[in-house]
Amino acid sequence: MTPITSLDLTGFTEQEPGVWTDAHGLVLSVHFFGLVPDLPAPLDEPDRLRHGLARSVASAGAGLIEAVVGTVDSVPAVGQLVKVRRPNGHGQVFLGSWTVPRATCSTVVKVQAGEGSMTGVREAVVLARTGPERYFVPHPYGPGVEGGLPFHVGDHEEWDAEFPDHPLTLVRAALRRITPTVVLHDGFKTLAPFATAAPSPIPAQTPSTPAPAAGSSGVRRWFRRS
After folding, report:
1. How many structural domains are present in the chain?
2. CA distances from 43 to 50, 125, 171, 185, 196 (A)
3. Domain span at residue 82?
4. What is the tens place of the pLDDT at every residue in 37-69?
């Protein structure tokens, strides 16, 4: 049950309602949360939003690679690329998502993929090319982003063509292809927009997923694609 009524599932096979996989090991899923979105800032304050997201992801032990503000089916949304450690500590899992927030609920489309038995090749190659002093850089979303997985240039999109089978490359490409095909229910699109009331300023110096709620007062019932 989500307000996503359709999306391009070419190459994906349904594993369970709302979850699909493909031959490359990508997992595509759609979600609905009948709760006020837990975003640190409105979408029209992108600097504060990105800074808050980066700090939140780092505090959870992960790393925010990229956050952008855009639209999904003409509705304002925030896209994120995040890396997390595998539960067994060997390698990383990369997650790409678009969150479409409204005043009292949100919907998410997410793609994820993990490293296989061989890990760290992309990082090692890029580190050798750039050198340590250019490889590890301060997080671009501002000061105070500490902890979690380090930010480095090896995750930049410019390296994707050289590593076409890397999970980050696959996640980034799949999300870029699928997002423009997402169609949202008209009732969801007309809900009041998301806004936050308690700003938390960015410092002046320079430098996982909750379960869907069963229901929410005032929110229509959404029907996922047939």
Report:
1. 1
2. 9, 36, 23, 21, 9
3. 4-189
4. 999 999 999 999 999 999 999 999 999 999 999
